[in-house]
Structure of SDR family oxidoreductase:
Amino acid sequence: MSLTDTVALVTGGASGIGRAAAIALAARGARVIVTDIDTQGGGETVAAIGAAARFMPHDVAEEPEWQAVIASIRDSEGRLDTLVNNAGIGSGMLVTDMPLEMWNRQLAINLTGVFLGCKHAIPLIRAGGRGGSIVNISSVAGLQGSAGLAGYCATKGGVRLMTKAIAKECAAAKDGIRVNSVHPGIIDTPIWSKINEGGLDSVADAFSTPGANTLNADLIAASGTPLGHAGAPEDIANGIVFLAGPESRYMTGSELVIDGGWTA
């Protein structure tokens, strides 16, 4: 699968799925712009890729920063072919205990950030005149509810349905832009590494327990993943590359679930 002569933007590219996606896209020939609020991690991702990548600091919840990133890509690359809306956060708390600030922050990053990405990237992709692909990272939490994760589930479910709506808008415009969502299960990333060696009772605990920092594969296996282990960021990156490339040319508004059987 070749992505030679394409330009990709990956948000939240400093670690985890975003880093793996940026590396995988570049390995197949894409020039990659990596963005994140974590400048050190973003720089490490770019260093791992080499000359085919560059980093920009970027808070996806802020519209002026989206405008600056897209303008920079327009000026330096002249086009954009692939957008990977990956940046996200997770916080676990019962809805009766959740501060409004926590709710709003999840909405701002996980949902509004994806909206802003689509809003500002689509005109630049369209201007290239050869179509493109938008890949929005949702979650299995966007397909089914989990107690203690009302905010996360709400935002990731919102990403799922917003993806479908925007896919129909682009299809109606006949601009050749496909828009799909990816739904990871439990993946060995900084968010999920909050599940520690001692074991936590629930997914919500994994988000809310201070200091937990080691992925416990046995706990993951017991949590309901039929394949019995956590996935790797590269497992999700492979799906992202597929959706970015021509092999998925007949897919739009679709959900690519990569969860080890969690939702089976």
About this structure: The beta strands are 7-11, 31-36, 53-57, 82-85, 132-137, 177-184, 255-258.
